[in-house]
Amino acid sequence: MNIPYSRIGLLFILLNLINLFPVYPLDGGQLLNRVFLDEESIISKIFIFLSIGFMCWFAIQMPFYPLLIFPAMMLLRMVGENKINNIEKRIEAEGINTDLEYEDLPDKDYWRIRNILIEEHNSFKDVSPAPPFEYDEKEERIMTTIQHLLHRHLIQDLSITGKIFIFLIWAAGIASPWLINMDMSFFKQFGF
Q1: What's the pLDDT band for 72 if we cut at 50, 70, 90?
Q2: Residue range 54-81: average pLDDT?
Q3: Which of 169, 120, 162 is nearest to 145 (CA)?
Q4: Is 175 part of any domain?
Q5: Fewer CB near the last or first residue (10 Å), C or N of the chain?
Q6: Is residue 143 part of a domain?
């Protein structure tokens, strides 16, 4: 099969356009969710569920059933993030500061977070809580989990002007093939 480089380039442009669609977990959907929605809000959760529904519908309509793995992974990720959010709420209720680097975490707070993880995280149910202050064979995984809990919250400090600017760049990315009068006839054979 002898496909010219220009057609391969057009195919990559099509893949980039698809990636800019406002469907989570594509880049366009992540941009929408992170910049224009509060990731922890109910609106964000509704957006993600709508994206899951759209991806299921798309995979069935194609029909290309291996695409259903993406909605399944998104659901599993949401369940995992929900567990982490519950752990974060417990840590916050204990008055532990997590807005710092792991190296700066006081030992006392490490052991308090560790005890919360043992209570809340299924993977650590068999680990003995402190005191006594003894490391377990799963301690490396516990440390990694605690490191991920630190600095998790992004501060949305982008102004309205900044959001409009990002939206214009995103819209220009989607419209760019038409803005430069690109020959899109190649895509008609794919049904686009």
Answers
A1: very high
A2: 89
A3: 120
A4: no
A5: N
A6: yes
Domain that holds residue 134: 94-153
CA geometry: angle 190, 15, 22, nearest 5 deg: 110
Mean pLDDT on 3-10: 78
**Crossing angle of helices 5-19 and 160-179, rounded to 10°:** 150
Nearest residue to 137 (alpha-carbon basis) of 148, 126, 147, 145: 126
- pTM reported for the whole predicted model: 0.63
Preceding omega of 25 cis (within 30 degrees of 0): yes
Q: How confident is the model at residue 12 (pLDDT cuts 50, 70, 90)?
A: confident
Residue 68 in any domain: the answer is: no
Q: Which of 36-40, 139-143, 171-175 has the lowest mean pLDDT?
A: 36-40
Q: Looking at the domain assignment, is residue 122 inside a domain?
A: yes
**Distance in angstroms (rounded) separating the CA atoms of residues 79 and 95:** 25
Q: Which residues of 133-146 are buried (b: 16+ CB within 10 A; e: fewer)?
A: eeeeeeeeebeebb
Q: Which of 37, 35, 62, 61 is nearest to 49 (CA)?
A: 37
Split into its structural domains, the chain has a count of 1
pLDDT surpasses 70 at 86: yes
Cα gap 117→147, rounded to integer Å: 12
